Amino acid sequence: MLTLQHSYATDLDDEFWISWEGAEVPDPRVVLFNRTLAGDLGLDGEWLQSVEGAEFLAGMRTPEGSRPVAQAYAGHQFGGFSPRLGDGRALLLGEVRGPEGRAWDLHLKGSGRTPFSRGGDGKAVLGPILREYLMGEAMHALGIPTTRALAALTTGEQIVRQEGPKPGAILARVASSHLRVGTFEYFASRGDHDRVRTLVGYALERHDPELLEAEDPALELFRAVRARQATLVADWMGVGFIHGVMNTDNTSISGETIDYGPCAFMDTYDSATVFSSIDRGGRYAYGRQASVMQWNLARLAEALLPLFEVEDTDAAVALATEEVEHFAPMFLEQWTGVMRGKLGLADTRSGDAKLAADLLDLMADDGVDFTRAFRSLSDVLRGDPEALSALFDDPDPLEAWLSRWMDRLDAEGADREAHAASMDRANPIYIPRNHLVEEALDAAEEQLDLGPTRTLLDVLSDPFTMRPGLERYTEPAPSDFGPYVTFCGT
Ligand code: AMP
Ligand code: MG
Question: N or C: which end of the chain has fewer CB within 10 A?
C-alpha cells in the first residue's frame, strides 16, 4: 500500500480541480517499472507491481480517503488561447513524500475520460507512453530537470487511432508539481485574481518556500520560474533536444521538462529542425525554443501582473515587460555556460559564445551529427582528430576553428587530458536516437516485446560512459531512415 497526500485537493478549492477516478480497464499490467525512482521515493515497488498495485496505478482503485483529481488549466497552443484545457486524459492521484520531506506528484496519463476531455477519448496508446518513459529517463540521466516515469502499464484494451488499433497504455509519472503557466492563465483569463494569488502561494510553497515572505511574491515567483526555464532551455539546446510542443500548458512552473509528446533529439545539426507533424510553421523548431520560452513567460507575466506590488497598471505592465525581456540575456548566459562545458572551458571569456556559435555554423554547413561532433572534440585533445574531421566535408574551416579553440583552451593552462575528461562528462555519447526509439516502440506496439525498450533504457541510463558492445547506439540513423516525423501521442 501507499500513502498519498492531497495538498492540491485540500489546499486549493474546487475551482482548481474536479474529483475524478481512472476508468475501469480490463487487464491493467505494469510492463515497465522504475525501481530506482521507486527506491529514491521510498515507495513499495513490489506492491506497485502486484495486481492491486497495477489497479492503483491505473487509477481504478484508489486507497480509502484519497482524493484523485483532474486539474484545471488553460493554455496558449501554437499561439492561440484555449481558456479551458485541463486533464483530459490524466489524473493527479496525489502526492508522495520523498525521504527528504519533499512532495512529489503521482500523476497518470491515459487514465480515461474526464470532464476536461472535450472530444478526446481520454486514452493513451503504448508507443507514446513508452516514448515519454524513455525520453524522461534519458533526460534525467543527462542531468536535465524532468518529470519521470514511475511505471508504464498496458490496459488490455485496443485503442483505435488513425493508423489502426493500438494497445492501450497508462503512464504513471512523478513530478515536483503539475503547475503550468496555463494553470495561472486559467484563472487570470477569468479575471479571478484572488485565485491567481492563491496559486502563487501554493506554487511558492511547493517550489520556492524561501520566497513566501517576499515583499512581492508574484514577482519573485515569476523570477524564479524565469531562472529555471532559462536553465532548462539552455540544457535542452546542449543535447540537441526539441520539445516540439512548447505550449503554455506544457510549460511547468517547476522548470522540469514536461509532456513528451512529439519531442525528439536532433541528429544532423540544423537550428531549423522540426519533427512534429503538427508544427508546420516551425514555431517550436530547435533554434526557436528560447524565444518561444520568452513568449510563454510573457503569458505568465500577464497572468501575474495584476498582483505586482506597484502603484498602477501602467507600472505593472512596464515592470512585467522589463522582467520578461531580461529572459534573453539570462538565457544567453546559461547557453554560453552549457557550451563552455561542451568545449571544455572552465573560465569565462568574452568570445566564448561566438566560439561556440561558429562551430555550430560549421556543423550546419556540412550537415554534421550534433552528438558525435561534440563527443569527438575530446578525441582531438587526446591526439586523434580523425573521428571529428571525418564528419565534415570541408576540413579547412574546421582546422581554423580548432586552432582558435586550442588557443582558448591553452589560455586556461590546464592540461589537455583534464579538459578532455571534463568534456566527456558534458557531451553524451548515447542519446535516444530517433531510429532506435522507433525500433523499440515498434517492437513494443507490434509484438508486445519490451526487450528493445528495456535495453535502450539501460544504455541511456549512463549516457556519458563509453561501453564496449554498444557501438550501434552511437551511430546515426541508416540512410533509408527518415525524414523523421513525430506525432502528439493522442
Ligand atoms: P497535450 O497535447 O498532450 O499537451 O494535451 C493538450 C490538451 O489535450 C490537454 O488538455 C489534454 O488533456 C488534452 N488531450 C490530449 N489527448 C487527449 C485524449 N486522448 N483525450 C482527451 N483529452 C486529450
Ligand atoms: Mg500537455
Answer: N
Spell out the SS3 assignment of 438-487: HHHHHHHHHHCCCHHHHHHHHHHCCCCCCCCCCHHHCCCCCCCCCCCCEC
- If one residue of 77, 85, 250, 276 were mutated to test the ligand 1 pocket, choosing by the most ligand atoms within 8 A of its CB, it would be 85
Residues 164-183: tens digit of each pLDDT: 999 999 999 999 999 999 99
pTM: 0.98
Taking the C-alpha atoms of residue 134 and residue 440, their distance in angstroms, rounded to an integer, is 10
Q: For atom 23 of ligand 1, which residue has the closest CA?
A: 88
Among 162, 251, 259, 490, say which to mutate for ligand 1: greatest number of ligand atoms within 8 Å of CB.
Answer: 490
Which residues are registered as beta bridge partners of 171?
109, 152
Q: How far is CA 206 from CA 86, 305, 399, 432, 442, in A?
A: 20, 21, 50, 31, 38
pLDDT-based confidence at residue 343 (cuts at 50, 70, 90): very high
Cell numbers standing for residue 302: 500577464
SS3 (DSSP) at 109: strand
Q: Is 415 a catalytic residue?
A: no
Residues with CB under 6 A from ligand 1: 85-90, 116-117, 120-123, 245, 249-250, 259, 261, 488, 490
Reduce the DSSP state of residue 8 to 3 states and report it: helix
Q: Which residues surround ligand 2, an ion (CB under 5 A)?
A: 250, 259
Q: Which three cell numbers stand for residue 205?
A: 510553497
Separation of CA 194 and ligand 2 centre (Å)? 25
Cell match 579553440: residue? 405
| Ligand 1 closest atom vs CA 114 | 21
Alpha-carbon gap, residue 340 to 381, rounded angstroms: 15
